[in-house]
Amino acid sequence: MDGSSPASGNGPMGGESWEGSAGRLAGLGVSQGRAAGPVLRMAGPPALPAPRAVGDPGAEVAAVGKALESVAADLNRRAAEAGGEAAEILEALAMIADDPMLREDAEARAGSGVDAAHALDAAFAQHREALAALGGYLAERAADLDDLRHRAIASVLGLPMPGLPDPGHPYVLAADDLSPADTAGLSDDVLALVTERGGPTSHTAILARARGLPAVVACKGVMDLDDGTVIGVDGTTGEIAVGLTGAQAASVAEEERARRARLAAGTGPGRTADGHPVKLLLNIGSAADLRPGAEGVGLFRTEFLFLDRKQAPAYEEQVAAYADVFAQTGSVIVRTLDAGTDKPLPFLGLPHEENPALGVRGLRVDRLLPDVLGTQLDAIAEAARRTGTEPWVMAPMVTTMAEASAFARQAKAKGIAKVGVMIEVPAAALRASRLLQEVDFLSIGTNDLAQYTFAADRQHSALADLLDPRQPALLELIGMCARAGREAGKPVGVCGEAAGDPLLAPLLVGLGVTSLSMAPVCVPAVREALSGLTLAECRERAEAALE
User: Fold this and answer.
1) Is 373 within 8 Å of 337 (Cβ atoms)?
2) Which tens digits make up the pLDDT trace of 104-157?
3) Could you read off the pLDDT of 13-44 as tens digits, one per residue?
4) How many alpha carbons fall within 13 Å on the CB side of residue 284?
5) What global pTM score does this model have?
6) Which is catalytic among the residues 118, 203, 522, 538?
7) Is 538 a catalytic residue?
8) Residue 203 catalytic?
9) Rounded CA gap, 312 and 350, in Å?
10) I need a surface site. Which of 19, 85, 110, 411 has the fewest CB within 10 A?
């Protein structure tokens, strides 16, 4: 498989700009683009002082409550300023800081004679341990608790909140990992992000893509670099060039400016060089994420309406949120509530599970709480009537024919004309032809399909090679679904992270995928990549990758 971008001419590393660097590091590229500049490492968390004698336990209890309230208020303020996906993530964090169980635990420790800082430290540690024990995506979210802990302790000690370097000039930010609060608060001086930990679906990756910042995660050794070392970052390949000269850094910046200008100039629908159409769609969480230049919405993640809620949003509130999106785009695919595992929703009251990645998630929630899906389908149908649109609706985490059939019957009974399912588990991919006898379209979620195909946690940076969407076994499952769609005369799209990768998009098209849905910032690069290849060339690349 040719690894270079079809339109770059010099391959992903930008030609001579990187030659002569003192060394190389490698990680997992999660957000496209290149940048170069002096690296600055993120400062560590506030130091926890030695325990002190407590004279007034009541004052310590009050200090605990004040610190947690301060952290939650700060995160909500940042959310209001950020908007979009950043706001949704920050609001979810604020909800954790405001969690009554966490507060009660910390206050109980303070009331027993532990100083406020150590009471907070112990309470966060206990909750972090419980979250880490759940494994999978939830274990990755345990890092969010670390950030909240640092902020709460800084607040109670009267120290500055942990934050980002502010040198007054452009720089590349290096960190062990980045919290959502830090990533959402990045200044315009940050040229690129490199972290030692993290995965392709971490908050760092999601927000970096939303902002169009080159980003590399799981890059061992980046925190060993001296501050001020000039490095080059390739967010597509995951390569880091260490020790660039000023002239080399300037050349990289100029190449990137030219690349972005070229991409921005591209318009029109997605198609190959010989005119084969490929719809380029958006992944969104709300109407605020809609952007011009795409051909519609391929993934409307409705769970973002539910994430920060202690109670389910009312029917009318759901109708208004859906109608806001429907009124602004002529084509939209709605995914029903994708709850569980990576998106725990407190109002659902789902039972604790030893292995939640293999438990009640996605459509399986309907087994326990059928009214949730019923209300959502009613709201989607009503929003469609009010706006005069015809949204397509799909269910996540479908595994069997029975599940697909039951969902299709229920949705169509509500008046929804086009019903589909997501392909996220191998069982569904293997039965794609039969599933298409029950539904109108398929949408492949490559993140979960890779996780379940290779039995590799999608957040585990040490297993990045198994999660690489170029793995032949994963491509074969995608090709199987595409063939089933072609034979049935029904569309099959991809809405996982792979869809927004300009190096991978031609392979997916070559396999027969009819649409690609991605973060808005990815559309121009994917459009350009496809326009530089004929359909036959895409097929040749797909066949080579399968071999």
Assistant:
1) yes
2) 999 999 999 999 999 999 999 988 887 666 555 555 566 678 888 998 999 999
3) 444 456 666 689 999 888 889 999 999 998 77
4) 27
5) 0.70
6) 203
7) no
8) yes
9) 13
10) 19
